[in-house]
Write a sequence for this structure.
């Protein structure tokens, strides 16, 4: 699996801890898209474009709350970013929604919870043809019809 990760300057430590965790779990090739730009939207869009283009399988973006980066990432066609705060939702982001980017808050989730969220997000897969397929198809169709 190829994973793109990025954050704002406030989340540098959280990002480094997650990279170490993912390397220990052998999740695959991890590319750091940086953390120095104080405009978190710039990093979020870079990660989202890399995932939407299918150059990367999944993305992880972190800011103070995760809200801003999730909004920014979801502006990119083909990027489906989910703000994660609990393990059940992290699983469902993949299983029910085929989300390809996990967003988290460095100030709102502790290190252990961030690890559990990433583990749940990366270890689950959307199953094409499942009962959630029509829901996913609906937002992809809307995106296709309304994007520039």
């Amino acid at each position: 699996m190829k994973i793109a990760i990025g954050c704002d300057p406030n989340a540098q430590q959280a990002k480094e801890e997650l990279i170490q965790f993912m390397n220990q779990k052998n999740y695959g090739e991890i590319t750091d898209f940086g953390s120095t730009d104080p405009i978190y939207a710039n990093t979020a869009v870079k990660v989202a474009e890399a995932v939407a283009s299918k150059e990367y399988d999944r993305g992880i973006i972190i800011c103070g709350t995760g809200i801003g980066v999730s909004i920014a990432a979801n502006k990119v066609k083909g990027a489906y970013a989910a703000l994660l705060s609990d393990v059940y939702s992290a699983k469902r982001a993949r299983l029910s929604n085929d989300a390809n980017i996990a967003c988290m808050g460095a100030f709102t989730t502790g290190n252990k919870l961030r690890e559990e969220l990433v583990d749940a997000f990366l270890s689950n897969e959307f199953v094409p043809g499942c009962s959630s397929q029509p829901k996913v198809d609906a937002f992809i169709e809307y995106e296709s019809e309304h994007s520039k």
Observations:
- The longest strand covers residues 2-7.
- Strands lie at 2-7, 29-32, 58-63, 81-83, 101-105.
- The first helix runs from residue 12 to 24.
